[in-house]
Design a protein that fits this description.
With 207 residues, the chain is an alpha+beta fold. The chain has two domains: 45 residues; 128 residues, Lipoxygenase-1. 25% of the residues lie in helices and 31% in strands. It is built from two helices and eight strands; from the N terminus they run H-H-E-E-E-E-E-E-E-E.
Length: 207
């Protein structure tokens, strides 16, 4: 049988061992927390950007060209756009260094949306002259005039999308191509005063 002094010594040892284990656990937990905080502080300069850096990596803006014609007309109208010092973008060339045709609408053929429209977007704003043409690809029913609405909008890093131009062009025969707009933009997306004309420039070749 153990003496009372032996039992007391065992309890004291167990209490000491328990306190020691708890202290070690708290110390390890504290050191881990301090290490985590230190890592976050060291990473902050790399993951946070100044306002100037944010603006530097923000795309400078887009030129958006939309074309709409009556939904009930089963005709194929094509949108063609040419950015400054760029190649024309349309149904057979849907991408260039500056522009992309995002929707090639064939009229009612294969179109579940029931809407007749095409749209092109630029990647950024290039200073210079832009040309926007509409082209009647297919045959037009006899006696039918197709009104085509063309809208140009600009979105720069300083504002939201804003419409700058709108017009309507009438098409009534196959392969008819009309210039809806020729206009100039500054690098900030501002329309150059007096630059808007409808002086014809053919973008579709082979007709």
């Amino acid at each position: 049988m153990r003496s009372s002094s032996s039992v007391s010594a065992v309890w004291a040892f167990e209490d000491f061992e328990s306190d020691s284990s708890g202290t070690v656990f708290r110390d390890v937990l504290m050191l881990a927390l301090i290490g985590f905080v230190a890592m976050v502080i060291m990473l902050l300069p790399h993951i946070s950007k100044t306002q100037e850096e944010v603006e530097e990596y923000t795309p400078p803006g887009n030129v958006v060209v939309e074309m709409h014609w009556p939904d009930e007309l089963p005709v194929d109208v094509d949108l063609w756009v040419q950015a400054p010092n760029d190649i024309p973008v349309g149904f057979w060339n849907q991408g260039s260094p500056h522009f992309n045709l995002l929707r090639d609408d064939l009229g009612l053929e294969g179109d579940a949306s029931g809407r007749n429209y095409e749209v092109s977007y630029s990647r950024g704003i290039i200073a210079g002259e832009y040309t926007v043409n509409v082209h009647m690809y297919g045959k037009v029913p006899a006696g039918v005039v197709v009104p085509v609405r063309v809208i140009v909008s600009v979105k720069s890093k300083y504002d939201s999308l804003r419409q700058i131009l709108e017009t309507s062009v009438e098409l009534q025969r196959r392969n008819q191509e009309e210039t809806a707009f020729r206009f100039r933009l500054t690098a900030d997306g501002d329309l150059v005063p007096g630059s808007v004309t409808t002086l014809r420039r053919r973008l579709v070749t082979g007709h």
